Each structure stands twice: as structure tokens, then as C-alpha cells.
Amino acid sequence: MGKVAVGAAVVCAAAVCAAAAAAAVVHHRKKSSGKWGPVEAMVKEFEEQCSSPIGKLRKIADAMEVEMHAGLASEGGSKLKMLISYVDNLPSGDEKGFFYALDLGGTNFRVLRVQLGGKEKGVVSLHSEEVSIPPHLMTGSSHELFDFIATSLAKFISSEPEEFHPPPGKQRELGFTFSFPVRQTSIASGTLIKWTKGFRIEDVVGEDVVGELTKAMKKTGLDMRVAALINDAVGTLARGRFSNQDVIAGVILGTGTNAAYVERANAIPKLQGSLPKSGDMVINMEWGNFCSSYLPLTEYDRALDAESLNPGEQIFEKMISGMYLGDIVRRVLFRMAEEADFFGDTVPRKLRIPFILRTPDISAMHHDTSSDLKVVGNKLKDVLEIDNTSLKMRKIVVKLCDIIAIRAARVAAAGNFSILKKIGRDTVNAGKKQKTVISLDGGLFEHYNKFRTCLESTIKELLGDDGAETIGIEHSNDGSGIGAALLAASHSQYLAMEDS
After folding, report:
1. Within a domain: 405
2. Is there a catalytic annotation at residue 426?
3. Are residues 28 and 143 in the same domain?
4. How many domains does the chain have?
5. CA–CA distance from 374 to each of 150, 327, 368, 377 (Å)?
6. What single-letter DSSP state applies at residue 341?
7. Where residue 172 sits, what CATH number does that domain have?
């Protein structure tokens, strides 16, 4: 292990040790006759632990930038994998024609047919179909899974209108969004590192996933070329770039989180061989695994991590993504019920169930503007089976949602700022106000308005008045689908023939 890797490990180990020490402190809060005193003390303590002043956010961004450099220097040199995507030709906006996309990232997958009309028309038409993966295929063999996917793709293409048919001698082209850990070897090949998200298939680990899909398509008689293999963060970047050439990064803030950005190829030591023609390369950061002692972790985060399927990993993701925010709030409510009788003499049974309180639930409560916080009361009753809550109790629940959403948004903003720092877009250089845009996608960013507003304002706060004028944040809808089709277009074999 290199010195940088050791340093990164020491920092994260120190954070884990501190976490263990803090988690070992048992809170023996004496229940007082004043009902709200202990509760308010716990809320105040939680708010202080979640505090994210601008100085701390700058330190988080600095630490992530250090990890970015280390990850670009060598494999395994950082908690950030900084994977080379081999996307060196992002959409220009001129792309035209019909392209397909396959988006596989969970228990469902989508197939899409996209018609592109260049700068004047953009995305002319979009047709898609979602297919559920039978449970037995998630634990069976890779051949069965890819055969099922290929068969579904062939069925979708069979309904293709005549005007979509390629001319004789020309193949259909596909962008493949495969949102599982992959080590890419080219724009259209990559070996699977491991399955996640409930898949338990072993026989394709270490194999080329594009090769597996291609073999399955041939069985169905489908003549189609996989032009690009990507993940959803890279797709979000491509989707944004098609509409706006100032886009330099794509960020996913949904159930999970990740980021991809455009790096100068000569700044990537581990990129061996000749540099790409464009001089740029898209890097898939896999930033969910970032870890730093500067992160404002609480005892509730540490408990969630310790009880997770991957303890000690994906710390950044567990702080800022939609998968986990609701459960952190549940854990605080459980502690308050257990130690301060927040919901009465007994702890509500449903509060003991991990992940029963989801992020859409806390978003709905957080955005409740009714005078009696009726939405909050209904959520507590419907989700947690807690009846007869007072207005005071509901206000405290909203306060907890506010604390956890603001922390997540501000820490996520620090991650975005680290990308701007790494590529030198965090300041106005020599009076030049170069426009820079970050494309974001994901349900958390799209639907949790207070999270989104806080994220955007915090990025501007980190940049300062001058820098904030040069940075834009845009929603890049459906990067995992349309973005894949766009990258199939920008890496089309026929485009290469035209250029030669």
C-alpha cells in the first residue's frame, strides 16, 4: 500500500475510532418532571453535532480534493476510486439520428429509443419501457439474466416504426447504463467488480459485461452494437452537455449518490498510453465512499453505519443520500422516545423498524405549511402508528427533518465545491468570468425543495460573490437513460467514419 493510501486509511481509521468511542458513551439522562426539557436538550445536542459552518465545509472540500489527486495518481491510492470512464467525446449538441439505451441499475431496467435532432431540435422523441426483473434471476446465473434482458430489448425493438429502421449494412447502436461497480477498459467494455443492490450472481464477476450482453443479443438474432458503457453520473453529465456546452460535471443525488466530471487527461497519472484527441477525460469519482474526520458525524450516523451491510464504507453516501436521511431521523426519534418519553410511557413499536421512515416522508413533513402541521400528524400516524401528537411534538419532528436535510445539503455542496476546486473553477481568474455548469439529477435533488435550495445557496456561499456569478446548477433529467443514448451517438462508429 502506498503512502497516500496509508494516509487515507489512517484518516478514516481515526474517524472510525472516534466514532466507536463516541458510540460507547451511554447517555443516562434523568427523566425530569419537565416534559420538554430533556427532549429539547437532545434536539439541541443533535443540532450541534450536525453543525456545518462554512469553515468546516471548506475543510471537507479540501480533504476531498486531496483524495481526488490521490485516486487519479494510482489504483487503490484513495477512498475515491476516480475511475477512468473512457468517455473522451461528450455530446456536442449536433448529434442526430435514432439511438437506443439500456438502463440497468436495480430490480427494474428500462429500454429507450431516442431520436436526436441536433442543436435546433434537441431530443425530438423518446419512447421507453420499464421491465421488472424476476427475483430468481437476481440470484441465478449471469447468462440467464442477460438472456432475459436481451429478449426484452429485442421485443421492444420489434415494435420499432419503419422510419426507425437502419439502412442496409448499418447497425443499431446502444448506450448501456450499468450502475454497478465496473472497472472499465474502454468506452465499450468493462469488468464487473461486484454486484450490489440485492443481486447475488457470482459467475460474471471479473467478466466483461458488454461481452455478456452482446452474446445474449446475438442469441436473439439482434444485430446491435454497444457503443458506450456508462453509469448514471456519467450519463447525467452527457445529458447536460448536450443542451449546454458549459456543463463540466454530473452529480446524482437520489437514493444513492455519485459524481463524474471532466478532467484534463494530462492530470491523470494512471492514464497510461496516448492521451485522447480532445485532451479531456470524464472521471467517475465514486464519491460515496469518501471519508474524513471533518464530516459532521453523529452517534446516530455511527450506529446506522455499524448496523449496515457495509460498515465503514460509503460514509459520505450515508450522510447525504435519500436512502438514509429518513432513517437517521427515525433513530433520533427512537432515542427521544426511549430516554425522554417523547411519545409517552412506551416506545412506539414501529419506531424500532429500520428504514420504515423514508426520505419522501421527512420531505413531506419538512414542507408542511399548515397551521396545525396536519401532514406531520398524518405521517406519524400512517407510517409509525403514533396517534394524538400535539402541535409541540410535531414542531420538534419538523425541526429534526430540518437539521438533517440542511446538513446533507451543505455537505453535498462541499462535495460539488471540491470538483470546482480540483479543475480551477472555484475562483475568477484574471478577471475572466468563465461560465461553469453542474448538472444534477436524482429524486432527492428534484423533489426535496428545501434540500435543493440549501444545496444551491451553500455552493454560492462557498464560492463567494464573484465566483457565484460564474457557476450554474441545472437539473439534467433522465441522464441515466437519455445520457446513455447521447453517448452512443457521440461514440458512434459511423461518426468515426465520417471524421476519417
Report:
1. yes
2. no
3. no
4. 2
5. 48, 21, 8, 5
6. -
7. 3.30.420.40
Are 347 and 300 in a shared domain?
yes
- In contact, 212 and 452? CB cutoff 8 Å: no
Backbone phi, psi, residue 472, to 5°: -125, 150
Q: Is there a single domain that holds both residue 263 and residue 313?
A: yes
Instruction: Let me know if 110 is a catalytic residue.
Output: yes
Q: 327 and 366 in one domain?
A: yes
CA distance 19 to 305: 10
Beta-strand runs (E) in 46-137: 83-84, 96-104, 108-117, 123-132
| Candidate list 179, 363, 439, 480, residue with the active-site label | 179
Strands (E), 240-392: 247-253, 257-264, 280-284
Instruction: For residue range 45-63, list pLDDT tens digits in order.
Output: 999 999 999 999 999 999 9
Residues 117, 52 share a domain: no
Residue 232 a catalytic site member: yes
Q: What single-letter amino acid sits at 189?
A: S
Task: Report the SS3 class of residue 125.
Answer: strand
* Helix (H) or strand (E) run with residue 499 in it: helix 493-499
Q: Which three cell numbers stand for residue 344?
A: 409517552
Is the residue at 496 inside a domain? Answer: no
The one catalytic residue among 52, 85, 110, 478 = 110
The per-residue DSSP string of 132-190 comes to EPPGGGGSS-HHHHHHHHHHHHHHHHHT--GGGPPPTT--EEEEEEE-S-EEEEETTEE
**Chain segment 245-294, per-residue pLDDT in tens:** 999 999 999 999 999 999 999 899 988 766 676 789 999 999 999 999 99
CA dihedral 57, 60, 62, 68 (to 10 degrees): -140
Burial 244-260 (b: 16+ CB within 10 A, else e): eeebbbbbbbbbbbbbb
Q: Say whether both 102 and 20 belong to one domain.
A: no
Residue 138 CB-half CA count within 13 A: 14
**Per residue in 341-380, pLDDT tens?**
999 999 999 999 999 999 999 999 999 999 999 999 999 9
Give which of 9, 25, 63, 20 is closest to 295, Cα–Cα: 63
Residues 6+ away with beta carbon under 8 Å from 74? 2, 4, 5, 269, 270
Q: Please indicate, yes or no, whether residues 256 and 287 belong to a single structural domain of this protein.
A: yes
Task: Check 88, 103, 147, 232 and give the catalytic one.
Answer: 232
Phi and psi based region of residue 127 (left: phi greater than 0; alpha: psi -120 to 50; beta: remaining):
beta
Integer Cα distance of 88 and 401 in angstroms: 41
Domain membership flag for residue 387: yes
Domain span at residue 185 reads 94-230+479-485
Answer whether residue 498 is part of any domain: no
Going by pLDDT thresholds of 50, 70 and 90, the confidence category of residue 500 is: very low
Looking at this protein, which amino acid is placed at residue 13? A
Asked whether residue 412 falls in the same domain as residue 332, the answer is yes
